[in-house]
Design a protein that fits this description.
The chain is mainly α. It is about 75% helix and about 0% strand. The chain contains two helices and no strands. It has helices spanning about 1-20, 25-45. Helix 1 (about 1-20) packs antiparallel against helix 2 (about 25-45).
Amino acid sequence: MSLFLLLILVALVLGIIGFAAHGLFYLLIIGATVLLADLVYGAVRLRRGGRRHRIVR
């Protein structure tokens, strides 16, 4: 969960810097790519979240 939140924060910071600074549009693109990768990562973890628990005998 902390990795998910860290990647969201990194994507937001890169997006803001890429939008605000003149000539750093590539940072906006990198931020958007990190955000998409993070959302895919979160969806995969959410989807298979219940299968990781083992029953102790």
